[in-house]
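Marked as duplicate of an earlier ticket. Keeping the data here for the record.
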Amino acid sequence: MAGSTDGRVTAAVLIIGDEILSGRTQDTNLRDIAKYLGVLGVDLAEARTVPDVLDEIVAALNALRERYDYVVTTGGIGPTHDDITADAVAAAFGVDLIEHPEIIAMMTARWGGVELNAARRRMARVPVGGELVKNPVQGPPGFTIGNVFVLAGVPTIMRGMLEDVGWRLRGGTVTVARTVRVEGSGEGVIAAPLEAVAKAHPDMSLGSYPFFGDGVYGSNLVLRSRDPEELARALDELVAALKTAGIDNVREVENA
């Protein structure tokens, strides 16, 4: 695992499933994971979506776990033939899959002692060396191995599993964001002042997010930094630069 070299704690999300790529299912897990990690001071630095193809999952997982401190995967740990995430993770780490006795016991109890069929037993498979990630919602748990966390694709279940992920992470300094709302001016007008402030603060993130609707248009300019003092200075400089450029309808708003 290479991880970060600048003091940041970084993560990537690997979203697995043909249904996401086909558009049949809309992914919301990325948003929820990003918000959850942000509170812990872990920067979500990359997200990829891959189909239910073992070689592609393995390749993406190996690339991401080498580059970032943590990788969170979602999807592909169910009972059907195309749920191959556990197989891919085991292949990526070069270990075997085993039926975890705790999961077998959980599922046997859940189904009243009835012998588990092959489909259900698929959900008990965990790579050798993996540890369980609790599932407080329903169904079997996820698992973690190395710097990889393997979670369900169903959003409510995924969010529940996240609660057993946070305590395992090495958190960093939380990134703070402040937003300047500019109404009645397009991005072409605000581009120069925004660029000037961005160049003056190269370690900060500055983004422009246009909005339209109800006869109102403009942009939300979002500044992000781990240094609250620098963030405050940059915000003041940005407001001053916008007003110098003749843009007066400028105000700070709360971040969503």
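See parent ticket for discussion. The two ends are 33 Å apart (CA to CA).
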